[in-house]
Amino acid sequence: MSDLQKLTIGKALNLGLRRAMEEDPKVLIMGEDVGKLGGVFRITDGLQKDFGEQRVLDTPLAESGIIGTAVGLAVRGFRPVCEIQFEGFIFPGFDQISSQLAKLHYRTQGKIKMPVVIRVPFGGGIGAVEHHSESPESLFAHIPGLKVVSISNAVDAYWGIQQAIKSDDPVLFFEPKRLYHSGALRAEIDVAGTPAQVFSSQVVREGTTATVVAYGPSVKVALDAAAAAEDEGKSLEVIDLRTLSPLDLGPVFESVRKTGRLIALSEAPSESSLTSEIAARVQQECFYSLESPVLRVTGFDTPYPPAKLEEHYLPDLDRVLHAVDRSLAW
Fold first, then answer.
1. Of 50, 52, 160, 230, which residue is most buried, by most CB within 10 angstroms?
2. Confidence at 1, pLDDT banded by 50, 70, 90
3. Into which CATH architecture does domain 4-190 fall?
4. Residue 142 designated active-site
């Protein structure tokens, strides 16, 4: 029997976590203020009340301790879901993630599995102070042994968090915090249905003039740019990567062979980033199909600025359209 509900990204994550906890008593949630408060973004709202303090744990302010504890719980057969309150707080836990979480499955030749999910609200646009608006996903995509995912809509949020929890490998699950409660992104979801696989790239808008590839909060920017470009007679194909490691670039290659042009879009700084990898791989695999070089529209190679300046830092519709014009003029 279907159960259709119209949900925001935030509510979809909440219901996805709830369903995972109902289906498997080994699923635990842990993090700073995730219990009584329901998380600073209210993503875990009501879960401690319904599942108890033994399964939804308010932790000390100690990211290294949160991740280290999750590693130990995973060894004992649990499936911990850790919330990092803001992406800039993840770095005290970087050693545990890179040295233990990412390595144990390989180090033990598969004898020890690491079914740990680390939820990371990321990206800018909320007018926050330093360490609250960063995009560190490329750092983790570079570490073998981790699966890195970034959702951009409510449907992928609901099914994606459940699929991440069911994975026997560690998953860093990046969530676009400024879109959590956007009414414009509400989507109708059959919460009792059977999902398609989320961890693969997806064409979210078809086009023929140029390809725009994005992930997380940048997907909405790409779709807005495509709508604006249509008024100018340009047809942009938009691809949501969804999985950042391992990258699923097959649909991107196919699209570029059709359009001949690619714009890679991300909030993260450009140097040594996912957009760098995308550009390199596309130019390697699609060289003879390209009508112009791969262009990138990204954040700048500076620390994230104060809130009054972030609208100038974040890639927007105009910067995407300018890149399209540059590509077409090549």
1. 160
2. low
3. 3-Layer(aba) Sandwich (3.40)
4. no
